[in-house]
Amino acid sequence: MGLQPLEFSDCYLDSPWFRERVRAHEAELEKTNKFIKELLKDGKNLIAATKNLSAAQKKFAHSLRDFKFEFIGDAETDDERYIDASLHEFSNFLKNLEEQREILALSITETLIKPLERFRKEQLGAVKEEKKKFDKETEKNYSLLEKHLNLSAKKKELQLQEADNQVEQNRKHFYELSLEYVCKLQEIQERKKFECVEPVLSFFQGLFTFYHQGYELAKDFNHYKMALQINIQNTRNRFEGTRSEVEELMNKIRRNPQEHKRANHFSMEGYLYVQEKRPAPFGSSWVKHYCTYRKETKQFTMIPFEHRSGGKVGDEELFVLTYCTKRNIDTTDRRFCFDLEASDRPGVPVTMQAFSEEDRKLWMEALDGKEAVSAQLDKIGFTVIKKCISAVETRGINDQGLYRVVGVSSKVQRLLSLLMDAKTCNEVDLENSVDWEVKTITSAMKQYLRSLPEPLMTYELHGEFIIPAKSGSPESRVNAVHFLVHKLPEKNKEMLEILVKHLANVSKHAKRNLMTVANLGVVFGPTLMRPQEETVAAIMDLKFQNIVVEILIENHEKIFKTLPDATFPEPISMSVSPPNAPPRQSRRQGQRIKRPLAVYNLCLELDDADSHSSPREDTPTGSTDSLSSQSPTPAFSSSPPGLLDGNDFIMDSRDLASWTSNAPSHSHPSMVSWMNTPSPNLATTNTASSTLFFLNPAVGSDRAVESVAHLKARAVYPCEAEHSSELSFQIGAIFEDVQFSREPGWLEGTLNGKRGLIPQNYVQFL
């Protein structure tokens, strides 16, 4: 079989097979080059041999001429005369023949040697130079492309656009050079047929002219010679006609490569970078593969191929595609990525990187790829939640770490895609199918809630939900949350009711699944109440989000089945305060109900190298009490020393260290380092042997506490007494013998000999 034609459209694919065909053409030209080189060598040897032969023939002719037969007798016979004359004639014949031979030697140089040397130098040499340029441009193109694809997606958009433009210009230049090189290769393949043969024909023409005695041979050869000349002329004429058509086609493809894409049995083919994961700590690498896909059989083939290593082809890998999904930029630091899943490797996605966004779109379309799921509070959304809840309560209500243990990301994404598709949602059987683990179902449900454009409890009411979680009695907190839930949009409230009812059911099985109300609050707080902006303040409010979710779970019957009190005030209502002054705490009669320490469990932590806490996911399973619970039982094995009845708490620094070293570990900033940071919400005082810490309720403390120290304090805001038991004062007033009052948010102190109540957030300890 002859050489396969080089299609111009293949220049844009630059496939391994295209490269093999190019190398076949190059090998053929190299073989032609060697042939011409050897032919030139032999031709020169032939000329030298011809000259030697001519000298020998002349010597032989002289010998014939000088030889004369002697006859016996006094006269020669006709036979002898003819014999004698023949030698002279032979000599003359050879003499004339050698003169023609010298002409032949000269004609060999002009008709054979010089044309072949010119073809080899001007045509084959030019192809070699084009090959060097092509190889150099190949190296440059793919090096720049690989460098470009390694650019982080986090760079500025302008930098990325400039890089994209540079790569696109370089790619166009590469395609231009590739097209010209392919055209040149095929031109030389055709040109050599007459450029090589025509000089040889001239050589034979001169040779047969020389051989007069070879007239019969020349006659026999004449038919072949004429036929060959006709063939050469016809080839030349066809070449001239075809050349214009080829150039026209090349220009058409250059203007729009996609319209002239060569039809084949592949739905899609081209180069992709494949992520190859390595054992830790080596990370992963990206290897270029030539990939093909047949939609009718779902067969995906990829072959590692490196242009810069001489076109080395690796082992082919074939698998049947089951799933394709687009990778969002927030899940990888590379652009243009998508995941494939093979039927023989379920749950183990292969990450691919295309050359551009347009290239990825073409692949996604060919592979029937799915875009990222867009969750909405619509009929499909309610169906998703209800199917997941039904499956969890049927199959996994007693699974340990329910909602805390996460599923495999690719499986979760695939399940969510199937559930969010109206065509496949009803076909997914979560209650009876073993294909979907419970952790995959719970993770899909959480992912759906996190994917909503706005959290279920809305950005608008986020701050209002947080306020009652920070202060007030348990009853007032429930009433405030009850009131706010009924301010939610109807769909949000309906979805929230379905979810909270389910979570309440989960918490009833806490002895088996270890998911207490507190643990569920930690898991679903950030999901249902994610802040609109990520700030330090939002991080500090995480624990209060959890409290709100706990209140919902513990009081779901009241909150969702009854209407709130129409006369209940907005949670933000407070007494009038001076400009820039904090709100004063309202006093109330009666003993404050003690609350557990779970709130401190979320924010207190020591960076102690001696602490030995086991790894956990999402929430500590050891926490068994709700932040909103009215039970006096603490969340730790023992309460921190110094924790008293009141609205603040006071703790000895040595006791704090010993207490927190036995507390569960959390992934929050160290409370001790935070305590040592100056803050208007934090006051310290030195005693004879230790430092006492006071936390203001504004930073999260909601436990009533009674001071055991007599301190001094300075007024930082003016205050006008609203009751005979309160003190009036101006900024800078110094209070003596200050103690914590049993009234939450109030202190007792003496000013100018009068003792009375002082709003705690109006003073600073000295």
TrEMBL record:
GO terms for molecular function: GTPase activator activity. The keyword Cell membrane applies. Residues 626-641 have a biased composition (Low complexity). Residues 375-560 form the Rho-GAP domain. SMART domains: PH, RhoGAP, SH3. GTPase-activating protein that catalyzes the conversion of active GTP-bound Rho GTPases to their inactive GDP-bound form, thus suppressing various Rho GTPase-mediated cellular processes. Also converts Cdc42 to an inactive GDP-bound state. Essential for PTKB2 regulation of cytoskeletal organization via Rho family GTPases. Inhibits PAK2 proteolytic fragment PAK-2p34 kinase activity and changes its localization from the nucleus to the perinuclear region. Stabilizes PAK-2p34 thereby increasing stimulation of cell death. This is Rho GTPase-activating protein 10. The lineage of its organism: Eukaryota, Metazoa, Chordata, Craniata, Vertebrata.
